[in-house]
Amino acid sequence: MKIALVHDWLNQRGGAEDVLEVLVRMYPGAPVYTSIYAPGLMPDSYRSWDIRTTWMDRLPGIHRNHQPYLFLYPKAFADLDLSNYDLVLSNKSGFCHGVQTGKTPQICYCLAPTRYIWQFDAYIRRERLGLAAASILRPVVAMLRRWDYEAARRVDSFIAISSDIQRRIDRFYGRESVIIYPPVGTGCYEPVAKPDDYFLVVSRLIPYKRVDLAVQACTRLGLPLLVGGDGRDRARLEAMAGPTVRFLGRVPETDLPDLMARCRAFLFPGLEDFGIAPVQAQAAGRPVIAFRGGGALDTVIEGETGLFFDEQSIESLCGALEQFEDLSFRSTRCRTNAERFDTAIFERELAAFVQKRYDGRSQDTTR
User: Fold this and answer.
1) For residue range 215-247, what is the model confidence (pLDDT) as tens digits?
2) pTM of the predicted model as reported, rounded to 2 decimal places
3) Burial of 327 per CB tally in 10 Å (0-12, 13-18, 19+)
4) CATH number at residue 9
5) Residue 160 sits in which domain range?
6) Nearest C-alpha neighbor of 7 from the set 15, 227, 17
7) Number of folded domains in the chain?
């Protein structure tokens, strides 16, 4: 099978890139088409991949600051003609599903319908854009939304990463999808006999992650909290933190399993499309206290592997933390739940879906 992989951009590493790394391993030799690639900002292992960029890669300053070029991404991907492949697999949160495929089927692994056009008001609040900037962007966003919808209509099959994303695919694109959860490497996590006395957050420290709720709730209740991660919100968070809150900075991946395994519970106050960290915590045998929304509804079993709080407020999270004091959770149950999302399961389910779609195409072309 001659397959092409498509990815939005390669100038930062996050959950989308975790998925892409597994796709590259599953389909060795498949080229990766993307808008831009900044080798110095990505893992060295990417240098061995067959990465093919668009003309956007030559635009000034785009590797460090790609957001100002937002309106150009549809054109860049629409210029890519991948009709000479047997199958195209796009790993999409932006516009990369807009490539031209002709009669070649495209499977879109949808991390999210493009957030900053379909949930624009939430986006401008999250990025703290002023009224003037928002007013200028609205006509552009309306144009991009029309393009994005038409591009989604050309996709042959959608795969959603969670129930929440499945609902958004239906709402924004009017398309059905199946759910295949993202790959989580659970093998390096394991429970410990007795955890330490601290709660834990590991996250990029940016406003929409709502780490401020964890910091303020634990400060109010006098509970020990470790905050792993860094980002532009760190100074603001440190200013509001009490003496029981400690900031660790970026946590090396090798240190994360032990840090997870020894916490009392992992706090997940943001609203995420899926959220890998709560699965990692459960793989380490620890329960999760999460906001009731997004991917956490798929990954946390209330009363068995964690608790939910209903509002993104300090009071609501404090209530969950106080409730947690009276409950107990079995580390083995947390671990078993996390194993549902292991990388091996993702690889098996995705490979079967891709093969079935390819076989269906082969049958169509022989009729």
Assistant:
1) 999 999 999 999 999 988 999 999 999 999 999
2) 0.90
3) exposed
4) 3.40.50.2000
5) 3-183+343-366
6) 17
7) 2
